[in-house]
Specification:
The protein is of the alpha/beta class. α5 links the parallel β8 and β9. The longest helix has 21 residues. It has an eight-stranded parallel sheet with strand order 7-6-13-12-11-10-9-8. A three-stranded parallel sheet has the order 1-3-5, with no helix packed on it. The protein is 41% helix and 12% strand. The N and C termini lie far apart (71 Å). It folds into two domains: 48 residues, no CATH class; 292 residues, Aldolase class I (TIM Barrel, Alpha-Beta Barrel), CATH 3.20.20. About 4% of the residues have low confidence. It has 14 helices and 13 strands.
């Protein structure tokens, strides 16, 4: 019988240490990952649990040796959490999605982020979520990094999805806390630690307290030893929290990636050191959002400030007063793409509002300098155009 005292035990751990043994003794706090449990059952290995208090070398809770992915791409700049376009039958419109993805890359987006909140992943089937990521990877063909949302209903499904995404060439996954059921802080730590020990892909933690429980800075700090976890996307809309995240976590991991998910604070976030952002409006005005990031990075404060203020009307129109993310899909339609029907129900009043919203979005886009086709009744402004397209 062999004794293993690791805090987290994976199938890889067992394969390397059992060497034909038919019994394994585990410490009272040892955690078997799902793949480890499957391995033990398949090999017919008997598990003996050592009781608490029995003699054994103390084993502190630490991260297993999970190597950093070779050749990890730089996660910096603007990643687009793209919407999903549907056809008249409410199926994914592959041809229009291909046109849309190519356009985003050609105009300068730094990375793609399928199955984010703006991609309404929760309204897609498992097969559709896989289809969206497969399509993005095929069209992208390695031109920019791909960050795929992998938040599933349970830990096993997260790992299965991560394995599938790895087979497609995805660069990393974004992972929020489990949604619907709130769990304890300790359980949340175990959840991320277990996935970090098993995932074939790097992990960007996703804090979005609007939709699930908050990822505290204390918890993220405890997860720093796990090399698979390389950064955080913060959509809390809280600039002080974002600054404290960078300040605390980078003291121990200087290369720790911190991205904002809120365009209203994109400029100050990048100015203060954020790695970039996953910005929903980058799916509508990618040229403006990319320029905002680049001007902030280069120190062109006046131009970055001008762009930051000019996108506020657009984000407020698309985010407020309508079911998410229908406002953003209306913006994508204004740029000339067929978004198709909604995946959620709406009242007659909401549908009427969307028609008015289309006109208002067109006004803002025209004011920015974009050529716009469609209804608009725009007030005259003295604002200069900010794009020449």
């Amino acid at each position: 019988m062999i004794r293993i005292d690791d805090a987290v035990i994976t199938a890889q751990t067992l394969e390397g240490r059992l060497a034909g043994e038919r019994q394994v003794e585990l410490g009272p706090r040892a955690k078997l990952t799902p793949s480890a449990q499957d391995f033990l059952r398949a090999q017919g290995v008997e598990v003996v649990r050592r009781e608490a208090g029995s003699q054994a070398p103390p084993t502190p809770r630490s991260a297993p040796a999970v190597p950093r992915a070779a050749g990890r791409k730089a996660f910096a700049g603007i990643f687009c959490p793209n919407v999903v376009l549907f056809d008249s039958e409410n199926e994914i419109n592959h041809a229009e999605m291909e046109r849309y993805i190519n356009w985003l890359i050609e105009v300068g987006i730094h990375g793609l982020y399928p199955n984010g909140s703006t991609g309404e992943f929760a309204r897609l089937s498992r097969e559709e979520r896989q289809d969206v990521v497969r399509l993005v990877c095929e069209v992208n063909a390695g031109r920019v990094p791909v960050l795929a949302g992998a938040s599933e209903a349970n830990l096993r499904d997260v790992l299965k999805m991560a394995e599938y995404y790895a087979s497609l060439g995805v660069d990393a996954i974004a992972l929020m806390p489990p949604y619907y059921y709130e769990i304890s802080t300790e359980s949340l730590f175990e959840y991320f630690a277990e996935i970090a020990a098993e995932s074939p892909l790097d992990i960007l933690l996703y804090n979005i307290p609007q939709f699930t429980q908050e990822l505290s800075i204390d918890l993220m700090e405890r997860l720093l030893p796990y090399e698979r976890i390389f950064g955080t996307k913060d959509s809390s809309r809280d600039l002080p929290r974002l600054l404290n995240t960078m300040h605390r976590l980078r003291q121990q991991r200087p290369d720790y990636v911190v991205m904002t998910g809120c365009e209203e604070i994109a400029f100050p976030s990048v100015l203060m050191g954020a790695s970039g952002g996953t910005i929903a409006t980058s799916g509508i005005v990618p040229e403006v959002i990319v320029e905002l990031y680049e001007k902030a990075k280069s120190g062109d404060i006046e131009r970055a400030r001008q762009l930051q203020y000019r996108i506020l009307d657009l984000i407020n129109l698309m985010l407020l007063g309508v079911n998410f993310p229908e406002g953003f899909k209306t913006g994508v339609a204004a740029r000339g793409f067929d978004v198709g029907p909604a995946r959620t129900s709406s009242s007659a009043a909401e549908q009427e509002y969307l028609l008015k919203l289309e006109a208002q979005i067109n006004c803002v886009l025209a004011d920015m300098g974009y050529p716009v086709n469609g209804p608009r009744a725009c007030p005259t402004t003295d604002l200069p155009p900010i794009v020449g397209r």
